[in-house]
Amino acid sequence: MASTKGQTILCKGAVCWGPGEPLVIEEVEVDPPQFGEVRIQILFSSLCRSDVTFWQDKPKIGLFPRIFGHEASGIIESVGEGVTEFVEGDHVLPLFTGECMKCIHCKSTKSNLCEKYRISSARGVMLSDKKTRFRVNGKPVYHYSGSTFCQYTVLEQENVVKLDPSAPLDKVCLLSCGVAAGLSSVWKVANVQKGSTVAIFGLGTVGLAVAAGAKKVGAGKIIGVDINPKKFERALQFGVTDCVNPLETNRPVQEVVKDMISGGVDYSFECVGNAQVVESALLSCHDGWGMTIICGVAGEKTPFTAHPAVLLLGRTITGTIFGGLKPKSELPKFVEMYMNKEFALEDFITHELPLSEINDAFKLLIDGECLRCVIHL
């Protein structure tokens, strides 16, 4: 097979031409990687809720046409000048938020928000020259946190992590976002202890990963809160002990939680990305020590409200991107844990579809019919 290094590649990609419009499978021109960049052949890409949020353009960014997708796995096809960490053929995970290893955030044990390569869903272009590497019929197409709904993509080397080549790419793709974020939110951000009580608001992939992580450390009671009762049976399999549907009670859901756990839970996790849900999660916590962790990506810019006394009485609230994981230096440990069967990824994969049926995957997720749909590219 002839080498494609240094050449523009023509491949299939799912392009969104406008907010909420069906994705169109196009012939996409993918330029060679520039200095410090790598070009990746994407083999598998699962659909994440944040892809839907930005596809609908709820944050009103307005960057279209665009190629979405960020939770993926693949193989390095070629590297640009200045790349020393990767070679052709390396198995990798694209990262929606990067790690330069040099800035004040990367050197700190308290942050994973790299100053230069942190998540920026509004960027749409490469940092080196402020240009896109994608075109359709000569028209530029914007990037999105990896743009993995395309058979080839280009990323800065700081936004890629190398994998053990024995790791199954169709499974570990889930670790580049949702599952790792949920698990690490429990283990690293909250540091949930054995016997603790937990409430999870939103029982999608991140919420169920939180449940699995809480179960693994021996949490005593794990309450799952969701307005879709179809999710409850599956939630019990992931470790949730009790389920609550806010639509089936005439009281605020936080009061229901406090009846179930006298005074409230030790930890609550907001996995929806909704201001009202954040408030409910905070008010579900026990005074004196309760902690709320915001994991959900909010599309709307609605603020949440809380009286200062809620925090004055000892509750805390914090947010986290990617569960606080430093993506390049800490994510390989999660791959190792999966390979050692310390947690399962297969349980999160409910559907698998070819790239040509990606709009069906969006519908499944929006309708609440799936956790993760793995797209085969």
From TrEMBL:
Residues 36-164 form the Alcohol dehydrogenase-like N-terminal domain. Pfam families: ADH_N (PF08240), ADH_zinc_N (PF00107). GO terms for molecular function: S-(hydroxymethyl)glutathione dehydrogenase [NAD(P)+] activity; zinc ion binding. GO terms for cellular component: cytosol. GO terms for biological process: formaldehyde catabolic process. Residues 206-337 form the Alcohol dehydrogenase-like C-terminal domain. SUPFAM superfamilies: GroES-like, NAD(P)-binding Rossmann-fold domains. The keyword Zinc applies. Its cofactor is Zn(2+). Keywords: Metal-binding, NAD, Oxidoreductase, Zinc. Signal peptide: none annotated. PANTHER family: ALCOHOL DEHYDROGENASE (PTHR43880), ALCOHOL DEHYDROGENASE-LIKE 6 (PTHR43880:SF5). Belongs to the zinc-containing alcohol dehydrogenase family. Class-III subfamily. This is Alcohol dehydrogenase. It comes from Ceratopteris richardii (Triangle waterfern).
